[in-house]
Amino acid sequence: MCHVIVTCRSMLWTLLSIVAAFGELIAFMSTDWLVGFPRTPDAVFGPHGATTAGEAYRPTLGIYGRCIKLPHLQRGILCGPYAVHFGEIASGFWQATSIFLAAGILLLCAVAFISVFTMCFQSIMKKSIFNVCGLLQGIAGLFLILGLMLYPAGWGSDKVQLYCGPDAAPYRAGLCSMGWAFYTAMGGTVLTFVCAVFSAQAEIATSSDKVQEEIEEGKSLICLL
After folding, report:
1. What distance in Å separates the CA atoms of residue 215 and residue 7, rounded to the nearest whole number?
2. What is the DSSP letter of 89?
3. pLDDT digits over 121-175, tens only?
4. pLDDT digits over 163-215, tens only?
5. Across 44-107, where does the E strand assignment appear?
6. Handedness of CA 116, 140, 22, 201 (dihedral sign)
7. Contact present, 51 and 44 (Cβ < 8 Å)
8. Does residue 2 contact residue 220 with C-beta atoms inside 8 Å?
9. Could you list the residue ranges that cross the membrane (predicted)?
């Protein structure tokens, strides 16, 4: 018989798991990892900085995408992937970053999907589903940390220097500033480890004595604070 068990701690863990997964996924797909120096569509970077005329804007560069403004484009800034194939990503470090982030996000999305069903199923092959998911979240967090540590090592690539100036180098962003996607990825990584730790509390809440008492009373829907 399926017992639907809902507790504050288990629901909070489910919600945080979904937020972490979607946050990392949105950050990975975003072009706002690096925000370039101000320029116009026909700007040229010289020894004294960017020579511009007219209204300036700041292009953005992601792991595999970018947003730029073209002189002939009347509808605003054009965003899209600059890398059609994996080998066209700006540097080997960013390729490694892509692999680690993608692996971490895949695990987080799997956990987020499973977490929705934890109200009805609390074990897998006699193992706590919360403990299994917590372990997967811990592994995902390690993948995300590796990806974020390798990401700044790719700032010395030719692609980054087009956006950040010739002073850009590994772990030095030059004239660029960090975009919201980088901070979102960092926040998502922290939240991933919070979820991994909090999964133990969700397990405790759904296997407490109060829950067992209500199961013995024959209740199929159990809601506890």
Report:
1. 14
2. S
3. 777 777 888 899 999 999 999 999 999 999 999 999 999 999 999 999 999 999 9
4. 999 999 999 999 999 999 999 999 999 999 999 999 988 888 777 666 667 66
5. 44-46, 49-51, 60-61, 65-68, 78-81
6. positive
7. yes
8. yes
9. 12-31, 93-117, 129-151, 180-200
Measure the CA–CA gap between 206 and 199, rounded to whole angstroms: 11
- Measured between alpha carbons, how far is 51 from 70 in angstroms, rounded to an integer? 16
28 pLDDT higher than 90: yes
Q: Are residues 205 and 8 in contact, defined by beta-carbon separation less than 8 angstroms? A: yes
The residue written with tokens 């926040």 in the block is: 187
DSSP run (H or E) holding 116 = none
**Mean pLDDT score of the chain, rounded to an integer?**
85
Element (H, E) at 5: strand 4-7
| Interatomic CA distance for residues 187 and 204, integer angstroms | 26
Q: And the tokens for 131?
A: 């403990």
Residue of 44, 48, 64, 72 lying closest to 56 (CA atoms): 44
Q: Give the domains, in start order, of the chain with CATH numbers.
A: 4-33+91-223 (1.20.140)
**Rounded to an integer, what distance in angstroms lies between the CA atom of residue 48 and that of residue 63?**
28
Q: What percent of the chain clears pLDDT 70, i.e. is strictly above it? A: 79
Give the CA angle between residues 182, 183, 187 to the nearest 5°: 120
Task: Kindly state the DSSP code that residue 223 receives in the 8-state scheme.
Answer: E
C-beta neighbour count of 209 within 10 angstroms: 7
| DSSP state, residue 172 | B
Which is more confident, 73 or 16? 16
